[in-house]
């Protein structure tokens, strides 16, 4: 009798134990945290069931981004500002290892962007008042702008031999603001992967890099409208992809009724005209960062040629009239909230 | 078609419908506001109880107002008023930020329309 009872209840007990065991396991979910680092708002989304991993990863991102912010800051004391001091002497010096890889890659991007990305123009950014946390103007005079452009500081003026570096142009002052965030996100994400994070989005100041996917779906990304009124479009991404936008609404000031934004055209010395925002998708965050700036400056007429040179095939540009220019590859990835005027442009 | 076939089809339909709701539910109205000052969460308050909160940061005082199921940055240091421009925060995930004062005001709910927003 007892034996028959055990035979009947045995499988039941196994099911009960399994149920209890499974209920003890946490289901993976998206853990979100928002904090201020790198001088901006940072959002970290991690899809996992491991809460301890989330805590370690968040701390890792915080400390990584704070270190990078301090190290690469263009106008606060640190390795980058020290590098600028040494570059202005024209004498050779041993480059700080914390900034050398950035400068080398920035030189490469300067060439491929045909000079539209020119972080050697730090003096111009300072002249416009954008090397402060709260830019207020007034804008510089045409004579002041001309004085800097006549000296033509560029990344090509920097000679690098191993760790030795010198500038052949005393006007070279580095400001890697259009690129350091992309490079930094890439580094911080690599660190997260080393910790064991497989599915995450790291968003710093609106620009983001994603890895993996949350369960059985893609990551859902909203692209904010340039006028600040809600979301312009939705993009689905999965695997390692970065989404970067450069917009005229990010950093700007008004002076005597005129609005001056921070994306300066190195050819004219003035804020670039014709474009409101450029969004780029690319697997490499630093490339996406540089490309969004360079394509913004290239403008609605010339961006396809520059995109082709930079190897970017997913581009969305919103021009001053609100017309949306898209590459065919980007069109496949975007869903618009309304029905804006669209123009599909193939790359040369 | 047997009764078992019908049951399998019914379960499949329920599974598809359940997955749709689970994966695609749009943003829901927020129920709570979370206020972060510096590196510390200083308040998590329900949105259905009107109140005002003053948050002291390195640049001055940020005023958080809660009313009618929403929260907003009513006043904050910063010459451009970026924190205040975010307006009333109603949908889960909406936020207002004062970088000079290192204050984050975000409203929370069960579902977010987007995993992250690019700008």
UniProtKB/TrEMBL annotation, chain A:
Q: Which residues cross the membrane?
A: none
Q: Which reaction does it catalyse?
A: L-threonyl-[protein] + FAD = FMN-L-threonyl-[protein] + AMP + H(+)
Cofactors that this protein relies on? Mg(2+); Mn(2+)
**Compartments where located:** Cell inner membrane
Q: What domain of life does the UniProt record list for this protein's source? A: Bacteria
Q: Does the keyword Methyltransferase apply?
A: no
Q: What is this entry's stated membrane topology?
A: Lipid-anchor
GO molecular-function annotation terms? metal ion binding; transferase activity
Q: List the record's Gene Ontology CC terms alphabetically.
A: plasma membrane
**Keywords assigned by UniProt?**
Cell inner membrane, Cell membrane, FAD, Flavoprotein, Lipoprotein, Magnesium, Membrane, Metal-binding, Transferase
How many and how are cofactors bound here?
Magnesium. Can also use manganese.
Residue numbers binding Mg(2+): 178, 289, 293
Q: What is its EC number?
A: 2.7.1.180
PROSITE patterns from the xrefs? PROKAR_LIPOPROTEIN
* SUPFAM superfamilies, alphabetized: ApbE-like
Its principal location? membrane
Q: What does this protein do?
A: Flavin transferase that catalyzes the transfer of the FMN moiety of FAD and its covalent binding to the hydroxyl group of a threonine residue in a target flavoprotein.
As for family, the record states: Belongs to the ApbE family.
* Record protein name field: FAD:protein FMN transferase
The protein's organism comes out as Ectothiorhodospira magna
- Give the classification, highest ranks: Bacteria, Pseudomonadati, Pseudomonadota, Gammaproteobacteria, Chromatiales
TrEMBL record, chain B:
The transmembrane residues are 7-25
> Which CDD domains does UniProt cross-reference here?
NGN-insert_like
Alphabetical keyword list: Membrane, Transmembrane, Transmembrane helix
Q: Name one Pfam family in it.
A: NusG_II
Protein name (record): Uncharacterized protein
* Lineage, opening ranks: Bacteria, Pseudomonadati, Pseudomonadota, Gammaproteobacteria, Chromatiales
């Amino acid at each position: 009798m007892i034996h028959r009872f055990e035979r009947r209840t045995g499988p039941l007990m196994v099911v009960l134990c399994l149920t209890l065991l499974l209920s003890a396991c946490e289901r993976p979910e998206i853990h979100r945290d928002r904090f201020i680092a790198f001088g901006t708002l940072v959002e970290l989304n991690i899809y996992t069931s491991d809460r301890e991993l989330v805590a370690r990863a968040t701390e890792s991102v915080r400390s990584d981004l704070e270190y990078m912010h301090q190290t690469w800051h263009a106008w606060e004391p640190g390795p980058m500002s020290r590098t600028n001091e040494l570059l202005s002497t024209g004498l050779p010096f041993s480059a700080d290892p914390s900034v050398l890889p950035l400068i080398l890659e920035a030189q490469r991007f300067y060439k491929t962007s045909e000079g539209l990305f020119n972080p050697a123009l730090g003096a111009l950014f300072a002249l416009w008042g954008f090397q402060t946390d709260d830019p207020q103007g007034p804008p510089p005079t045409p004579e002041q702008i001309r004085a800097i452009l006549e000296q033509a500081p560029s990344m090509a003026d920097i000679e690098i031999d191993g760790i030795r570096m010198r500038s052949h142009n005393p006007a070279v002052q580095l400001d890697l603001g259009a690129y350091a965030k992309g490079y930094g996100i890439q580094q911080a994400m690599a660190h997260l992967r080393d910790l064991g994070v497989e599915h995450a989005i790291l968003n710093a100041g609106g620009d983001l890099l994603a890895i993996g996917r949350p369960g059985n779906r893609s990551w859902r990304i909203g692209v904010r409208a340039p006028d600040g009124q809600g979301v312009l479009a939705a993009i689905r991404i999965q695997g390692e992809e970065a989404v970067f936008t450069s917009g005229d609404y990010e950093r700007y000031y008004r002076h005597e009724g005129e609005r001056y934004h921070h994306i300066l055209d190195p050819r004219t010395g003035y804020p670039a005209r014709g474009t409101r925002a450029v969004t780029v998708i690319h697997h490499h965050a630093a490339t996406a960062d540089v490309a969004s700036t360079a394509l913004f400056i290239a403008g609605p007429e010339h961006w396809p040629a520059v995109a082709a040179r930079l190897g970017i095939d997913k581009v969305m540009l919103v021009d001053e009239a609100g017309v949306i220019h898209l590459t065919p590859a980007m069109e496949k990835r975007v869903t618009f909230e309304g029905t804006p005027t669209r123009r599909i442009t193939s790359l040369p | 078609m047997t009764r078992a076939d019908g049951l399998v089809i019914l379960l499949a339909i329920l599974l598809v419908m359940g997955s749709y709701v689970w994966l695609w539910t749009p943003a829901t109205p927020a129920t709570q506001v979370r206020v972060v000052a510096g590196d510390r969460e200083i308040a998590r308050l329900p949105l259905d109880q009107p109140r005002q909160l003053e948050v002291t940061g390195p640049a001055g005082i940020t005023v958080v107002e809660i009313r009618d199921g929403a929260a907003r940055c009513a006043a904050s240091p910063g010459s451009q008023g970026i924190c205040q421009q975010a307006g009333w925060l109603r949908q889960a995930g909406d936020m207002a930020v004062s970088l000079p004062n290192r204050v984050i005001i975000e409203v929370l709910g069960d579902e977010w329309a987007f995993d992250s927003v690019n700008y």
